[in-house]
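Technical note accompanying the year-one report. For the benefit of new consortium partners, we illustrate the data format agreed upon in the data management plan: each record pairs a sequence with a structure-token string. No post-processing was applied to the example shown here.
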Amino acid sequence: MKDRKGLLKSFLPWIAILLIISMVMPFLSDTDTTELNYNEFIEIVNSENITSIEVMPGTLVVDVSGEYQTTVDGETTVTSFTTCILQTELELNSLISLLESKDVPTVIVDENDASLFTTLLINILPYVLLLAGMYFLIKMMSNSGGNGKAFEFGNSRAKLEKNQTTRFKDVAGADEEKEELAELVEFLQNPKKFAEMGAKIPRGVLLVGPPGTGKTLLARAVSGEASVPFYSISGSEFVEMFVGVGAGRVRDMFKNAKKTAPCIIFIDEIDAVGRQRGTGMGGGHDEREQTLNQLLVEMDGFSGSEGVIILAATNRADVLDPALLRPGRFDRQIQVSNPDKKARAEILGVHARNKRFAPDVEFGNIAQRTPGFSGAELENVLNEAALLAVRLGHDLITMADIDEAVDRVMGGPAKKSRKYTEKERRLVAYHEAGHAIMGLSLEDANKVQKVTIIPRGQAGGYNLMTPKEETYFQTKSQLISTIAGYMGGRVSEEVFFGDISSGAHNDIEQATRIARVMVTELGMSDLGFIKYASGQDAVFLGRDYTQTSNSHSGQTAHEIDKAVRALIDECYKKTTEVITENKDKLINIAEALLEYETLSGEQIEHLYAHGVMPEIHSGIIEKTEEEIVVPTVETPSIDDQDDLLDEMK
């Protein structure tokens, strides 16, 4: 009722404008026209002041209109006039003869030839224009969510896509995930096969993983493979400031989905609406909780045989309500993790389909350099490389373009215009050389891929180090070597300059984080096999307020701090010993950095082993024997790339 009153109020100003125009139009149309009687008309004709006249004979009267001039004090004024003459007072022929004798330009208009349409158009056109303006304004208000959609707040915002073109072949590096989802495709295509066996397909599948790993892409691929309608919506689109709107949208979404079954409903970022209820100071939100309750009811209210499958994606499964994750709602959870080296090479191959590469580009080598990259980041690397190739006028994307693109994605563009003093430049060179020495000297340390003293972002230089072999677990010795590697820059400054700088700020942060995790969560200290609360759980992410307080005593907290400090001191001592033993090698690397500014992994290894830069033949650096062999993915030839581009066009 309130919505209808609001809609009526929006029309009242327009109704008032129509009434005002209706009253004003007659006055506007007659202000410049004078109504004359017969005698006044004859007097004006005899005075020969008429400039033009139009005569329209009628059945009983003759309508006469025209213009005449009057001169007052030397100023001439043109006045329009109209008059009606009875046929009995003056015959039409006599009137025409009188006007011809006075040489008055006369036009005879037949009453039947007068355009009724023109008259109506002149009188009605203002109202038509006003109504059209009202219509378009109301339509614009409706499109922007104004009062025109007052009755549509509860309608579903899910977007329907019937002809999905994404297929499983467009998703690389997720073989196990695709196997799990292929079962859904088979069910959507042939549900009878499962019904005969008495099997029920999962009603809901939750895709969990870091951002950019391809969760949404997998959901679209399921729809494309099954050739069924695909409803997509974000969790945040359910919640409005009006109570009850979100629940209404959930009802409407499931109602529409059942009409087009079999189909898929995909809810992206479901944690926006599915967080735990009634926990923490930030856990209470009536509208969000009502929406979640309705979602739980709807997922429980249809049978699996109806052909509606719910796919949802989140990177915060830990904050979801337990009722949402129980069997019968989201029966299956699929972990979509960051790709390993082999998967990264396959993903690069997918995103390289419409790009042209030089023959020396090997996706396996790029995958070796990009540990921890998600699929979205790998796509961004190739796109940045293509942009760089265009900017530099290259016909093909070269390995140098890709190398620079990786650096851009990791640290931002190089700031070659930033000016260093010579002292700062040497400090940065020895700092980065210290990191490199630790990576080359420690058996469990990461492998050095590239070192540069060209600033990027907030860093004065950086050292790219990747694991020698990607593993699922890390040992205590590997973690200690990682901490020692972070300390290499600071120790190098102290050994060679007798002073320290602020350049190790991020190194200290990362080393401290790892050490604290080792003590409080991994049981890698004298405190034993115990998990200590870190106090980092956020109350406003669906956590109990009481859970955020530390579950250990003050004495235990003191022991944790002592264990972390002892671990850091041990690593610092180890780093100092390594730097001191390899001072000559560190100097060679640092001086080479000062000269060349950027060194590759092969160059650094050659400097470490032989003390001189490697020889360069035809622009290719001779590789050392220690270099790890990287599996490669074949890059399409130039002719194949041209054929592929023509096919896509």
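Partners are asked to follow this layout when depositing records. Residues 544-549, 617-642 have pLDDT under 50 and may be disordered.
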